[in-house]
Amino acid sequence: MANSERTFIAIKPDGLQCSLVGEIIKRFEQKGFRPIAMKLIQTSEDLLKEHYIDLKDRPFLAGLLKYMQSWPVVVIVWEGLNVVKTGRVMLGETNPPDSKLGTIRGDFCIQVGRNIIHGKDSVESAEKEIG
Ligand code: DAT
Ligand code: MG
Question: Catalytic center at which residues (predicted)?
Fold first, then answer.
């Protein structure tokens, strides 16, 4: 049932430091998605290495892992019709200058290494991350 599609969103340290947690939750709620799980967590090196496994050979990975452990993050599971695809559209592009105004990254950040929010890009990877 497509209505029960779920995605995994994480508000990164800069999202919390810029007081954007409420704004981001508001956008997903107003769009029509349901929050079905939400947690404030402190990430660990091991968890992040698994989370960013696709980036294991990239030169910025070490800085990314350090940054992601520098502050708590808010992880949220959202449910609803086409939530994975629509969620990615709401986030904007990975690199903020490529993000349209009206998207979260387009409205609230300027730098790729501080892009506020994470969201899965496929149903399979979302289900894996939720697990
Ligand atoms: P996305 O978060 O849009 O799925 P991704 O999976 O390619 O993008 O990369 C994960 C995160 O890694 C991204 O949100 C920010 C960081 N990142 C990506 N490219 C980067 C770069 N060139 N320099 C620094 N950080 C980068
Ligand atoms: Mg990604």
Answer: 118
For the record, the structure tokens of 25 come out as 């939750």
* Ligand 2 center–CA 125 separation, angstroms: 10
Q: How far apart are CA 28 and CA 59, in angstroms?
A: 32
Percent of the chain with pLDDT over 90: 95
Instruction: Verify whether residue 51 is a known catalytic residue.
Output: no
Binding residue positions: 12, 60, 88, 94, 105, 115
Both tokens of 22, joined, read 């409420």
- Distance (Å, whole) CA 63 – CA 58: 10
Q: Ligand 1 center to residue 113 CA distance, Å?
A: 7
Whole-structure pTM value = 0.96
Query: pLDDT tens, 70-123?
Result: 999 999 999 999 999 999 999 999 999 999 999 999 999 999 999 999 999 999
